[in-house]
Design brief:
This protein is an alpha/beta fold. Helices cover 39% and strands 20% of the residues. Helix 3 runs parallel beside helix 4, helix 4 crosses helix 5 and helix 7 runs parallel beside helix 8.
Length: 297
């Protein structure tokens, strides 16, 4: 299968030290110049913030995108449903539901079919069961509101709640809305040390989008003078060019496809890369992704 290559605008958003920052218009030009077909737009400043782009603005952005031979596939939301749980008098969940609803309206105007969301980080104000219930209820309301726009809510396996692939499947089943699906990525289960091919087979029927980035592990040690030895620490993860990391993307994507996945594959550069964050290096990594993806097809 040939996968549609999608470029996540976070890759040129200046979100990590030394990373080049392009405006949205410049990012559209860059994606077209590199040879991508689809876009995933970061829904916060300096890119598609709801404070800066109205629904009408997004309709005009769609014209610019399509004039470059591109299409917007996904709007990438940034949320944490457990934020400020220690102050239940402040309606943070309502604020986030409204924000995600506004993203769905903008996705509709842009022609994007998916709003990517996160779940929640663990919080001492609620135990695991309470957090899972709260997250499911909140996502259910987001999905119902997004359905009015003809948009799917894609839950990424990123935050603590439902980071494990079995738990993500459980969460989406609990939400129980047909337009609530998974934005399932390989790097999380790979770092968890589980079988990512088995994970992809399990999640394929409910996956609407996947984002790729490759990583290398760097061992870390703490010296213990009394033992004249080193204590092993959690390894550091370092972003690498596609195909130069430890993640079995061939197996992962093949399993997704065999399970019925027909979406594209987005590429993101959202953490420091070898070679730095200059435009030349970002472009080089993006082109390597395209070459790597073409060889997989």
């Amino acid at each position: 299968m040939r996968y549609t290559p999608i470029l996540h605008s976070v890759s040129y958003a200046g979100v990590w030290p030394g990373q080049a920052r392009l405006s949205l218009d410049s990012f559209f030009d860059k994606a077209a110049e590199l040879g991508f077909k689809g876009l995933m737009l970061m829904a916060k400043r300096p890119h598609l913030s709801v404070l800066d782009y109205s629904v009408e603005d997004c309709a005009r952005l769609r014209e610019k995108i399509e004039a470059r031979g591109l299409e917007c596939r996904v709007i990438a939301g940034y949320n944490n449903f457990s934020a400020d749980l220690e102050h239940p008098d402040v309606p943070h969940r309502e604020m986030q539901i409204q924000h995600i609803t506004e993203l769905a309206r903008r996705a509709q105007a842009l022609g994007a079919g998916v709003v990517r969301i996160f779940t929640a980080y663990e919080h001492p104000a609620l135990g695991p069961a309470g957090l899972a219930q709260m997250v499911a209820e909140t996502i259910r309301e987001c999905a119902r509101r997004a359905a009015d726009c003809g948009v799917a809510i894609g839950v990424q396996n990123h935050h603590d709640i439902a980071a494990g692939y079995e738990s993500l499947a459980d969460l989406i089943e609990t939400v129980g809305e047909p337009n609530c699906r998974a934005c399932f990525d390989a790097w999380a289960p790979a770092l968890h040390g589980v079988d990512i091919v088995a994970a992809a087979r399990r999640l394929a029927p409910i996956t609407c989008h996947t984002t790729a980035a490759d990583y290398q592990l760097r061992p870390r040690y703490r010296y213990q003078p009394s033992l004249v030895n080193y204590e092993r620490q959690t390894p550091q993860v370092r972003a690498a060019r596609m195909g130069e990391g430890f993640i079995d993307y061939r197996g992962f994507l093949s399993a997704l496809t065999e399970g019925g996945y027909r979406g594209g594959v987005a590429y993101e550069m959202c953490s420091p890369l070898a070679g730095g964050g200059g435009v030349e290096n970002l472009d080089r990594c993006a082109r390597q992704f395209l070459d790597w993806l073409d060889k997989l097809g």
